[in-house]
Every structure is written in structure tokens, then in C-alpha cells.
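Minutes, project check-in
Item: structure for the 125-residue chain
Input as provided by the requester:
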Amino acid sequence: MTDKELKQYQVYLKAAEKRHEEIETLQRKITASYGTAEHLFGITDIYLECIKRRLVEAKKELAEYDSKIKSIDEYIRGIKNKEIKMIASFRAYDGMSWTEIAASIDKPGDRTTYSKKLNNYIKEH
């Protein structure tokens, strides 16, 4: 696990949400096309194949994002040190900057203190 992956957690969540929406839209388009005059005359066959191909790709992308999200969740849940777990949670789940994390933690320290703590923990584990 890296700090970059923790920071990208929010990006993975948004991308997964977009893939979910895209999959639903594609599935509705496929379902709606059956039984139409265009479908009966074969006009939509090429269009449907493109939609089906994109549906398969979107499902693969969603699986990748879900895997990354799950991996980060498991990593954070496995952190035993409460302070490090809090720092990692702030970084991943809340998308906080190091300055925001430093301001949120009651213990004194600047932004580099917490980034070093997390990076050192990651290197050791």
C-alpha cells in the first residue's frame, strides 16, 4: 500500500460510481431495444453489439475499482496503531490534505509529522 493509493481512494469511489451508472444505462438501452421495429429489421444489431461490448468493458473496470477499494479498506482495517489508522482514514476516506490532518489531530505536529508517520508505517508494514 502507498500513500498515493490511499489518496486515490476517493477517485476510485467516484469512478466506481460512474461505472455503476454507465452499466445501468447500457443495460436499459439493451433491454429497450428488443422488440422495436429497428430491432426486428436488424438495424440496431451493430449498435447493440457496441453497447454490449462497452458493457463488458465497464464491468471489468468496475471490478478493478472495487478491488482497489476493497484492498484499501482491508489495509486500513488491519492497522493496529490507532493514530496511524486515524491518519490513514482521514487521508483515504475523507480525502484530507496533510495540513487538514494536522489540524484535526489533537496532538501537536505540523503536516510533515503525520505524512512521515504514515509513510514510515507503510514502509514497515
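Outcome recorded: The radius of gyration is 22 Å.
No further action items on this chain.
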